[in-house]
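Researcher: Good morning. I'm working through a list of sequences from a screen, and I'd like to move beyond sequence-only analysis. For each chain I'm collecting a predicted structure so we can compare shapes side by side. This is the next one on the list. No need for commentary yet; just the structure.
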Amino acid sequence: MAPQARRPPGVPTIEAIKGLYGSAQANLYDYYEIATRCHEYVLNNSTEEMISLGYSLRSGGINLDVRPIKHNLFIWDVEEFKNRTSIFEFINNPSSIELNEVNRHKYRSILYTIQKSIESFLDLKVDAQQARKVVGEVFQGFVSEIFKTKQCLTLGGGVSFTIPAIQTEDTEEDQEDHKVKLSFDLLVRKFGSIRNADFQETDIICGVKTTTKDRGNMFFVDRYLYHQTQTTRPKFIAVCLNDVQRKKNRLRQTVGVSFTFLPGHFKLYEHVFGQLDGYYFIDPPPRFEETALMRENLNTMDKLMLDHLPIWHSNA
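Model: Good morning. Structure tokens for this chain:
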């Protein structure tokens, strides 16, 4: 059932957006509520410059450039996006809907529009550096709330462990120097699991990034280092929004879009560090299905939430 209407009027504040990931009380509806106001503001206060390779490039606000928006994944109709009953039927109870390709696309479209509306609003309202920071934190919190719709607990932070190969007879103080802290974006557990920070076989360590451009390799490195030093085998997965950016000429004028996902690097990381248990995009890069290997190891967000996660939980 969709939540009762409680949408405050007007343009959201930056503090309200920051409060999404800074409050333990914020939930998925809070993200959606703010996203609807961001959505309307973006469409009313930016103009479309061009469409490039299926992405709308809009401009306006203090940064001038809004990050590319996937034209056929974004919900452009304001009233359609405000339809809470339709939106939450897909997000909260997708098992009641036939999981055909049309509905899978709609599921991703809803998630994409919520995140992209907030992201585009920030592009219009704050400087680029602040926008990047807040967008990343909002996306991490948003993904956490998506997991909660599937009866999951989510924790963030890190876990410390001692590297067995260098355990010695040193003093307790010296032993602290042999400890490593593995930071993670989200630790995902089936609802009802214990809340301690020690990893369990049924845990999912989830890396969350809006783009893999700068730190996509760390998904693999974290898994590799952990597997080299520990015997417990939680799942390691990655969740990404997209891998696309504006393409500019020497005069810094936008001439289209370019894609930052590098298939060769992806294959290299898998070869050197081993495969992740899952690598998921809300808006997948256009080349992610070009080989049989990548079709097997890269998926869209609907596959994680509607297919893989229920199987993992049933086997837990």
